[in-house]
Structure formats: structure tokens, C-alpha cells
Amino acid sequence: MVVQDEPKLIGAISKDSGLPVKTIRYYEELGLLKTIGRTEGGYRLFRSDTLSRLHFIKRAQSLGLSLSEIKAFLEVRETGDLPCVHVRQTLQDKLSDLDRQILELQRLKLELTELLSDPAAQPIVTETMICPILESI
Predict the structure, then answer these.
(1) What confidence tens digit (pLDDT) does each residue in 58-70 have?
(2) Spatial CA neighbour of 32 closest among 19, 50, 17
């Protein structure tokens, strides 16, 4: 016999998860969460496993995943499959993007360091220049 957990009101989900009600509504609107109905007063009811789903969403976001990427993972899970292959590939892509961004930031840092390395150097100033520091190189 399967024991059903009591449905939780959106306020209880908010309190237990630490997320604002507005965020939970937004996640529902995007299809990340599903209600199991409403009370007579119109309050949303959620299954008790909503908290673990919210934890998954927040963890995925903390790793730089977008809500649309997270939604795709959740949709795979809803078919009964684990989305781990998709998660791994997406995280691999994120890692590649980070490596590229780090290289770009290192180049930018080098360029800024060179621009600021000799504050005593006086570039030739022309009438049309706005700031010789930026226009000298």
C-alpha cells in the first residue's frame, strides 16, 4: 500500500524552501513545478516532493544552468528516465564556456594592466581625442 503525503499549500512550500511565494508561482508558470489542485479558497496545492524539486532547481541554478535547461532536465525525468546524460553534457558545455571566458578575462586584465602600467607616460593629445589613455594604444 502506497502512503500519500499530505498536499502542501504554497505558503508552506515557501516557508520550508525559503523561497518567496512569487518565485514558486513563477516556477509553476514556467512549468518547472506542477500543482495538484487548489483549495476552495484558491490556494495552490503541491505534492510533498516539491521541496526536493525546488532543491534541484536551486542547485542547478547555482551551477549556472538556466531555467530553460533545468526545465528540459525535469521533462526528461517526468518520462521516467534520469536526465544525467543531458546534465553531464550541459555541464561540460558550461565548463568549456567558462574556460573561454577565463581566457578572455585574462586578456582583458593584461590589456588593462598595460594601459595603467605607466601613468607618467604622456601620449600625444589631439583635438579630437576624448581620453588619450584609451585611444593611445
Answers:
(1) 999 999 999 999 9
(2) 50
